[in-house]
């Protein structure tokens, strides 16, 4: 199967949730068993030799492939969540999105200095969400951070927010 087939499985919903947004719907990507297998195999191969010890998934669509990758890589899974959801002590970062502003949190004890972390989300638009997640992981302090998205909206140039020494990988480009 090709990346083109995966790309064609992503449904575009114009003007959702507000006018002017071309919403990339990943439910049509994930409902295919063949697609799930293919994405899992590609991502596992991509990160197999990196020594990943924790996959950090961003609520909520980062909770789909995040735990699957964690299992395949023999790593743990750590959720980054919207405010008010995590029960223990947290760090918080505020950020701007393609539509609206938001905040995310991580448990302060979710990671340790010897962790090699893969942060995963479904889609890179402006990059605001991932930079906030990256800052949260940096606040705790870990050995190394990799960043992964299934989809990149290239026109939004979110990739430019990341320092050159941070490895940012995306599978499907629009
Ligand atoms: P950003 O912070 O602008 O990179 O936005 C990324 C986050 O918002 C991801 O968690 C996406 O799930 C969601 N998102 C932003 N824009 C879109 C879009 N056009 N289609 C689907 N999801 C989006």
Number of DSSP-assigned strands? 9
Shape: globular
Mean pLDDT: 96
How far the N terminus sits from the C terminus, by CA atoms, comes to 18 Å
Radius of gyration over alpha carbons? 16 Å
Class of secondary structure makeup:
alpha/beta
**Helix share, percent:** 25-40%
User: In percent terms, what proportion of residues is strand?
Assistant: 25-35%
Biggest β-sheet strands, sense, barrel: 5 strands, parallel
Keywords:
174 residues; alpha/beta; two-stranded antiparallel ribbon; 9 strands; 29% helix; globular; binds adenosine monophosphate
Describe this structure in words.
- With 174 residues, the chain is of the alpha/beta class.
- The chain is 29% helix and 33% strand.
- It has five helices and nine strands.
- The strands form three sheets. A five-stranded parallel sheet has the order 4-3-7-8-9, with helices on both faces. The protein has a two-stranded antiparallel sheet with strand order 1-2.
- Strand 7, helix 5 and strand 8 form a beta-alpha-beta unit.
- Helix 3 packs across helix 4.
- It is globular, with a radius of gyration of 16 Å.
- The model has no long low-confidence stretch (mean pLDDT 96).
- The structure holds adenosine monophosphate.
